[in-house]
Specification:
mainly beta; six-stranded mixed sheet; five-stranded antiparallel sheet; 37% strand; globular
Length: 509
């Protein structure tokens, strides 16, 4: 397969995005790239701001926030129509409008929704294949349609949704969008981790105190806190993880057997409570990722808000034999670490030769750790088990359709050790997407988003519009076998790593 070329997409000639230039990943060898300046593509936008987040050092913020009403002019324009969301950008800013580096407030991930009049927010079952941090019996607040007749009642934004988000492109080619009828509200569930050393006034990263369980090496460009180590506040009691901060929560990470995932075959620590040593199970909302004897700056809080800018056009439905203006993009999601939702990266010097070949040594004496997963395309949308009132990722049955055209693929893996993530068609041997992270150099004087050691993940984008010079969209039947390969640097150990595919596609019939 051809190597992926990471190509800078031109924006300067067309205007300014909120976050500047973007890149995409390509596995073909031709042409100019699509234009990613939203204004030049006849797109309007509106901004929404989250409620305030206020945390102290080492604290986790991870909860569904209060709803935010969309701008009145947008609500009025589409009260009897459908809005086509064609892309978005996000940032985190203090009260003076300054962007806050991810090395101060780490964006672990977010789950964002625009909800229309045809949906309500309700408590539903947490499904490990669609939500973060699930355990047996957990309920989560999610939008659900008021009836099965509600076709575009809400939509979900989660692609490239962590520390890579600000400089990873979240846009679609011409004629594709996420559709919402009569939009009214924005809902956001962010997971943020406060890693700001209050004794450091500069924007350069200087590590603050870290718990004994942190695996970050001396001089690291990141805080070991962001990997959710299980501190001495944590104990394991009767099949649960218990904490000074949040009580006891059942431990029920459901690692799949091969070929669904190689975690069990590799003996990954994530799959067993006895060996679990860090990740989302140890960092629920308002937990403190420090040891009991650590309490620096107890009264110095960091306060900021998240800002989302949504780009949109008006959706025009099919009429008089003229096709609709946009095809609706369905969410396509899979975890290479199915269904644990995260996994452990063991230190290579300890795991090499003891994990069924997952750990390899590189020519320069470092180590990598590889996991794989195989599944069918239909598995990504609950083709046979899609109960629209009880699944946070389901909005109806798709049994009349035969498959999807792939349009957008954005992986999700955490800094600082992500090496690559690949998506293959196992049946044909075709490489659909190879994502190679680009790491910040720390030149924040000239680029406020250039956080040292933090990753950007340029997505893969396809189209059927020849004018955009993009690869032709892959036609993927629901019974096609897909295959993911995720490679991480394992010279040092890491907890809570992820390797998920967060994609969008258009159904075909």
């Amino acid at each position: 397969a051809a190597a992926a070329a990471v190509i800078l997409l031109p924006t300067a000639a067309y205007g300014e995005n909120m976050n500047g230039d973007y890149m995409i990943s390509r596995t073909d060898t031709f042409g100019e790239s699509m234009v990613t300046d939203y204004a030049s593509r006849s797109m309007n936008y509106f901004d929404v701001w989250s409620p305030e987040i206020s945390t102290r050092y080492g604290e986790v913020f991870w909860t569904m926030m209060d709803p935010v009403a969309l701008p009145p002019d947008v609500v009025e324009q589409f009260k009897d129509g459908t809005i086509a969301i064609t892309g978005y950008e996000m940032d985190q800013l203090d009260g003076d409008g300054n962007s806050i580096p991810y090395n101060r407030a780490y964006n672990h991930h977010y789950m964002a929704y625009i909800v229309g009049e045809g949906a309500d927010m309700a408590m539903v079952d947490c499904h490990a294949g669609h939500d973060h941090g699930c355990y047996e019996g957990k309920k989560v607040l999610r939008p659900v349609p008021k009836s099965q007749d509600e076709q575009f009642s809400n939509t979900f934004f989660s692609e490239g949704n962590g520390g890579e988000s600000r400089k990873s492109f979240h846009g679609y080619p011409n004629g594709y969008a996420q559709l919402i009828s009569s939009p009214k509200e924005f809902h956001l569930e962010p997971m943020q981790i406060d890693t700001w050393n209050r004794d450091n006034p500069s924007l350069e990263f200087v590590a603050g105190p870290e718990p004994a369980a942190s695996q970050a090496p001396p001089g690291a460009s990141y805080s070991g806190i962001l990997e959710c180590p299980c501190t001495d506040r944590i104990s394991k009691v009767n099949g649960s993880i218990c904490s000074d901060d949040f009580g006891c929560l059942p431990f029920n990470l459901a690692c799949l057997e091969e070929p669904g995932s190689t975690l069990i075959a590799n003996g990954n620590k994530i799959c067993n409570l006895d060996t679990y040593n860090g990740g989302q199970q140890c960092c629920p909302h308002q937990s403190i990722l420090l040891d009991r004897d650590q309490n620096p700056w107890p009264d110095v809080k960091q306060t900021y808000r998240l800002k989302f800018r949504f780009y949109y056009q008006a959706y025009v439905p099919t009429a008089d034999r003229v096709s609709a203006s946009h095809q609706d993009l369905r969410r396509l999601y899979w975890q290479t670490e199915a269904w644990a939702g995260e996994y452990d990266i063991p230190p290579g010097a300890e795991s090499y030769g003891h994990d069924d070949g997952a750990t390899a040594m590189t020519d320069d004496g470092q180590y990598t750790y590889t996991i794989t997963s195989e599944w069918t395309a239909g598995d990504m949308i609950d083709l046979d088990d899609c109960e629209w009132r009880n699944s946070s990722a389901c909005s109806g049955q798709y049994k009349d359709s035969e498959g999807v055209y792939m349009v957008y693929a954005g992986g999700h893996c955490h800094a600082p050790n992500c090496v690559s993530i690949e998506l293959w068609n196992q049946d044909t041997g075709e490489l659909y997407c190879r994502q190679l992270p680009m790491f910040g150099k720390g030149d924040i004087t000239n680029d406020k988003f250039d956080d040292k050691g933090y990753a950007t993940l340029p997505p893969c984008v396809w189209s059927d519009d020849a004018s955009e010079d993009l690869p032709t969209r892959p036609r993927v039947p629901f019974d096609a076998k897909l295959y993911s390969v995720a490679v991480q640097n394992s010279t040092y150990g890491h907890t809570g790593q992820m390797a998920s595919w967060q994609m969008r596609g258009a159904l075909y019939y």
